[in-house]
C-alpha cells in the first residue's frame, strides 16, 4: 500500500512538472507568434509604400501627398503602434523584442506628419497609449 501511494505521488508530481513545462513552452510560443505578427504587419505596411509612390512620400515625410491617403496610411501605422503597445502592456511580447519595437515607435514619432496626425487623432486612443505616445514624442524632441 505504501509503495503504491508513493508511486502515485511521484507520478502526480512528474505530471505536474510536465504540465508546468508545457504551459511555459506555450507562453513562449505565444510571445514568439505575437512578435511574428507585428513584423508581418510592419512588412505589409512598408510593402504598401513600396508599391505606391504617394505612400512612400508619406514615409519619407514629403509634403506633396494626397492628404486623404496620407491620413489613412499614417492611421494604419498609429493603429499598428497601438497593437505593439498593447502587446507589451499585456505581456504578449518578450522584453528582448519590446526595446527595439519601442525605439521604432519613438523614431517614427519624430516624423512631422505623424505628429500632426497624432495631435488630431490622439483623443480616439486609450489614455495609457496617449501617455505612451506623448512620452515617445517628447523623447524625440
TrEMBL record:
Transmembrane regions: 6-23
Keywords: Membrane, Transmembrane, Transmembrane helix
Listed InterPro entries: DUF6082
Matches recorded under Pfam families: DUF6082
Protein's name according to its UniProt entry: DUF4760 domain-containing protein
Origin species: Cerasicoccus arenae
Amino acid at each position: 500500500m505504501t509503495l503504491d501511494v508513493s508511486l502515485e505521488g511521484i507520478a502526480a508530481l512528474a505530471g505536474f512538472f510536465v504540465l508546468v513545462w508545457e504551459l511555459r513552452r506555450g507562453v513562449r510560443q505565444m510571445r514568439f507568434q505575437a512578435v511574428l505578427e507585428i513584423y508581418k504587419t510592419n512588412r505589409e505596411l512598408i510593402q504598401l509604400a513600396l508599391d505606391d509612390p504617394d505612400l512612400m512620400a508619406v514615409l519619407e515625410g514629403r509634403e506633396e501627398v494626397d492628404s486623404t491617403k496620407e491620413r489613412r496610411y499614417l492611421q494604419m501605422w498609429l493603429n499598428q503602434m497601438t497593437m505593439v503597445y498593447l502587446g507589451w502592456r499585456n505581456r504578449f511580447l518578450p522584453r528582448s523584442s519590446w526595446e527595439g519595437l519601442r525605439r521604432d515607435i519613438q523614431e517614427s514619432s519624430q516624423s512631422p506628419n505623424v505628429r500632426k496626425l497624432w495631435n488630431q487623432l490622439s483623443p480616439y486612443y486609450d489614455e495609457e497609449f496617449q501617455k505612451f505616445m506623448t512620452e515617445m514624442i517628447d523623447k524625440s524632441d
